[in-house]
Amino acid sequence: MLASQRKQQILQILARDKQVHSGELSQRFGLSEDSIRRDLRELAAEGLLQRVHGGALPISDAIAPLETRKYVQSESKQVVAKKAVALIQPGLVVFLDGGTTTLELVKQLPANLSFTAVTHSPTIAVALVDFPQVEVILVGGVLFRHSVVTMGAAMLESINRINADLYFMGVTGIHPRAGFTTGHYEEACVKRALAGRAAETVVMASADKLNSASAFAIGELNMASTLVVEHDLTGDLRAACQKHGMTLI
């Protein structure tokens, strides 16, 4: 079998099983694990999978720059946002992460809903200008251009003075083995910090984020109390969410 054919089969197995193990692939193809690891390295370099210890996971499509992500899974994000907006009750203090799904959430807000929104996303803050009943706290810091959010010591110091009721956390991947992941190390650190300052963490997940992973771990699935999705979960991901006591909407 040609290497290109083997790699294609690996991708097919990955799409079907949502993970591959180097040892199992070695036995399947009658090759050494070194040869399989080389295949996985090359596929990872092409952006076709995410390597993890012992194998690989499907790579998330949600790691593109913000402007590109506006047009990815837009209908799925709208459906998820409509479900999630009911979680925001009058008087709450709510952390709003950056990202296109959160932007859809803002668009679904009732015009007369009164709450306090805390965000490190200038894009989200500007979108909230049209909601006069919402008090908006924009947390400053160093601008991370890829996601258009602030980061750094000043940002972290500011959120450490806030106790939020809810945190709508943006992720790029949700996988039963890898947990919640994102494409950038500093973003993962910021998300953990925000989750640590909120009574409840809510994750809104469009279809492209399910059963996929990115390079940097935010945390295990038990760090979120609620997962909002377009369609009901199945298989290992549903079982993992239930195991961790997560509410599925």
From TrEMBL:
Gene Ontology MF term list = DNA binding
Keywords of the record, alphabetical order, are: DNA-binding, Repressor, Transcription, Transcription regulation
Please give the superkingdom of this protein's source: Bacteria
Residue span(s) of domain HTH deoR-type: 3-58
What is the protein name given in its UniProt record? DeoR/GlpR family DNA-binding transcription regulator
Query: Could you read off the lineage of the organism from its UniProt record?
Result: Bacteria, Pseudomonadati, Pseudomonadota, Gammaproteobacteria, Enterobacterales
